[in-house]
Amino acid sequence: MESKMRSDLKANFASIFFLITIHLLAWTVSAFPAAAHAALKASEVAVLAVRNDPDSMKVAEHYMQARNIPQENLILLEKSYPMVIPRTVWDSEIRPTIQTQLKALPGVKCVVCAWSVPLRIEAPPMDSPRRNEQLEFFRTQEKALAQVMTETLRIMHRDIAPTQVSIVEAESVPDVGKLSMQEWLRLLQTTLQQVRERVAVLPETDRKAEMQKLDKILQQTLGFAAMRNLLIARARQNMPIPKETFVKIMKVLSTLEKHMLELHFRADSPKRDAEMLLVTRLMNGPYSAMLYARECCMRLEKNESQSAFDSELSLIFETESYSLLGWVPNLYAYQYRMPPTVQLRKKEDPKLAVPEEMRDRLDEPASSVEEPLDALPLPPLSMTAEIKTAWGQEVTLGPPPAMDFGLDEEDEEDEEKETEKETDDEMVSLDMTAPELETDLDPEEEETPFHVLEPARKVLFVARLEGPSVETVLKLIDDSIAAEKKGLEGTVYLDARKTRPARAGAGQMDKMEQSLNDLAIRLQRNTDLVVKLDTEEALFMRETCDSPCALYCGWYSVRNFQDIFTFSPGAVAYHVASFEAESLKTGPFWCPNLLEHGAAATLGPTFEPYLAAFPEPDEFYSLVLTGKFTMAECFYITLPFHSWAMTYVGDPLYTPYRAKPRLKMEELPVKLQRFFGIQPQ
User: Fold this and answer.
1) What kind of architecture, by CATH, is found in domain 479-681?
2) Are 298 and 142 in contact, with CB atoms under 8 Å apart?
3) CA separation for the pair 213, 157 (Å, rounded)
4) What is the DSSP letter of 91?
5) Residue ranges of the domains in the chain?
């Protein structure tokens, strides 16, 4: 059974689509300006209930009275719906009803779904013409991109300092579309090494001409993100870099990343599909674009267009019909709003767009270089997609320019060392300026770095009061308020499956292991909390967990709840596994059973979410332990995606450690410290 669980884990959670999404957007600067605000207030919360459902009304009334929520903040559905509704019901009935009532409540930032509100929205029918159109497009582009990469390698053998041996090798290049990413990178590295060896023996004039050819090919093969990282790595080794080329790349990447973020909220259309693929290809190269096209085909074949009701409700203010395939970024999350910009009204330094270690290597301010609107290579698409940003910039596509990357033969040995994957700490943000914020704070006053930032594209907080019984829900409300007043007490239980792995990428299983282990280390170093970390494959055993549980996170026991803990009143607990919020009333799922056994708050997926959809425990619980943020804010700051699977169950205003904070802001994970402006980028 254990081996099968591991197999299921890999099959369900290992998705290259997450790697691409995170890589494309994890360092996207706030494309939409943010405004600072204080913690969520009761007057900013509305409650959604079902008028003809007595239990729904009972839960709504109890919560509103307990939290002093204004009576006018009650939103009503006029009839009951099943827990799972068709997309057409959401689009034509429920969404318009809620939108109409929210228009009369402009100050509302959070909606609480009070019992019997639908839990999940079904995917559209499999046989829709639009789905078939998308499937054909992405299949065609996947094949075309594989052909482009295969032919590129042949050109490198055949046309750059060719020899009889290299011409023969050109005919034996394998189909890149059948290679894994590791195999593709090894093949590319080997081919580059062979080209350099051939070029090195040429006369100087011929050598420079052939290296210029190679530079052009690399530009189209690697993508702008890899070229940026290559130049940054050279600068870190105190090697000379071509400043104008670097600034061009940074400017192009900034435009592409902002445009990618906009595309997630663009109305679904063939043009949008083409632009998504194009931007992916320009940023990360044709191989990443091929993987993106392949994954889109897989998702279309599985019809992964369903969503949690609460997740869709978060986007109710969006005016366009965004794509339902997969997810859209949660613009409230720290991942999509780096750097933080809680600093107020700082003057812009044009050199701040350049990483610190490179600033003294540039003779002129970055802003003095003209926009490189002609710097983009021709995409391998059957159509040319226009890129036009919301602020009016246009990017035209043409043949690749001659860009000098300084790849002289003297630098070959050092350049080859830059094939290692960068860690998160080595990534460089593309725009470090601090835009002005719309805020009620006096600019002369001391800055308050723990204020949460609202994206200009409004995101609605959504929480849910649901559980195995009405009594369970009423109790969790009362327990939350009581614990908030005196401070949550109890042991922190973290159930990892092994000791901390050294490296892990977004969406990989080791990322969860890292996060659980990091949280344990953080709390042991900085707090007096009792922390129990289990690094064995098996789950905690009840006989080893005799002290009351205040916080719990573990994984991966799918649809297989284990009664392990005695929970402190007000406890927060979640289990990282698929389907654990498929039902909140009954079944073997973790979410309803955690609530029934005494937890006051939990979170989980209503269907297969993939691993990267979960808030990471180190980030989520670290925010909770500061006592400065409501549970809704902790959830939304660390939740990567909307129009997807996750739901939070509990009182959104609950702040477990308000009375007794256990963690300081400067003790948060580094990424969150950067988000709040505590540490520089």
Assistant:
1) 3-Layer(aba) Sandwich (3.40)
2) no
3) 12
4) I
5) 479-681
